[in-house]
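Query structure, 336 tokens:
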């Protein structure tokens, strides 16, 4: 059973990757920013000793050599799964807060693995649909997005606003990873995951209502009666369940055919109206506080091709209804 280094283990996606790895019997070391984060993960997974779950502190992934020690292990790593990267719009300096952690964090990790962890054969990187999608073209009815597409955002556009900075951070970091492999010819291969909106159950000991991932904030707001007048538009109308995305990371490490490939990991279409309808059905006590207008799926929207994820990784995607039903009690557990 391959030993795994997981970066950013307390993050929304990463903790689901961690949960799945532990359930499969892997031995995992995960990086955390602080001892507090490590303790929160210990409390979330109390049945695993340090032989199965251990920690390496990396306070700032954008620092030179940040991962140099974390990649070293007496029991050598075979896989590295890199999820650590910022996804928030609370930004004062786009370069410092978004671009540097994403780009330097990714290239710094790859350099450290090449230098100090020759046993590693597979590196899986969490990228994003933000590195695929070209928002300035709009909804592109009739066009089908796939792994071949890239967001062509420039450095000048990246610093215009936090949203552009986020898209640029994922695009530049992923391109830097592929460039590294091409130029450095390391002993490992990489695969990247490119999910769109990521919804799904949370781990209550790791999150509060104020620290939810951006996608789940929409469900929280509907449950708290913040959408009584109108359901907001979704903006991006394709999604994936975090549990399916976590499995995709692991399958990409397991399967030789996944090496050297990008994966557009999406279950397909959804709308905020669909989520609202399911919430009203599942929560009759608050149904009257959730609007019945707005949030519809738009007319004329791009297509998607997720066949590579299905065929190579064998992912059987969950439904929106299953996701919402499972997510509700985890949000209720933190006060929603």
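Result returned for the query:
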């Amino acid at each position: 059973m391959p030993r795994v280094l997981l970066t950013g283990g307390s993050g929304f996606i990463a903790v689901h990757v961690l949960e799945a790895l532990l359930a499969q019997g892997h031995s995992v070391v995960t990086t955390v920013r602080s001892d507090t984060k490590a303790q929160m993960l210990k409390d979330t997974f109390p049945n695993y000793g340090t032989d199965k779950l251990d920690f390496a502190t990396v306070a700032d992934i954008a620092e030179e050599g940040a991962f140099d020690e974390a990649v070293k292990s007496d029991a050598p790593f075979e896989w590295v799964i890199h999820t650590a990267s910022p996804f928030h719009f609370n930004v004062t300096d786009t370069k410092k807060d978004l671009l540097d952690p994403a780009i330097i964090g990714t290239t710094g990790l790859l350099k450290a693995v090449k230098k100090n962890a020759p046993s590693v054969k597979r590196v899986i990187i969490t990228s994003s649909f933000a590195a695929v999608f070209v928002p300035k073209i709009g909804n592109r009815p009739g066009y089908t997005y796939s792994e071949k597409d890239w967001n062509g955002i420039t450095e000048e556009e990246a610093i215009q606003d936090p949203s552009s900075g986020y898209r640029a951070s994922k695009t530049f970091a992923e391109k830097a990873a592929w460039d590294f492999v091409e130029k450095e010819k390391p002993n490992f291969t990489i695969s990247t995951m490119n999910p769109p909106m990521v919804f799904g159950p949370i781990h209550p000991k790791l999150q509060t209502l104020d620290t939810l991932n951006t996608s789940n904030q929409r469900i929280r707001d509907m449950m708290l009666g913040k959408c009584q007048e109108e359901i907001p538009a979704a903006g991006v109308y394709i999604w994936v369940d975090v549990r399916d995305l976590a499995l995709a990371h692991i399958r990409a490490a397991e399967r030789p055919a996944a090496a050297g490939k990008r994966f557009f990991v999406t279950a397909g279409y959804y709308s905020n109206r669909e989520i609202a309808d399911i919430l009203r059905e599942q929560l009759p006590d608050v149904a009257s506080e959730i609007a019945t207008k707005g949030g519809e799926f738009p007319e004329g929207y791009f297509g998607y091709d997720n066949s590579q994820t299905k065929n190579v990784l064998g992912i059987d995607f969950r439904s929106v209804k299953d996701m919402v039903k499972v997510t509700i009690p985890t949000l209720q557990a933190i006060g929603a």
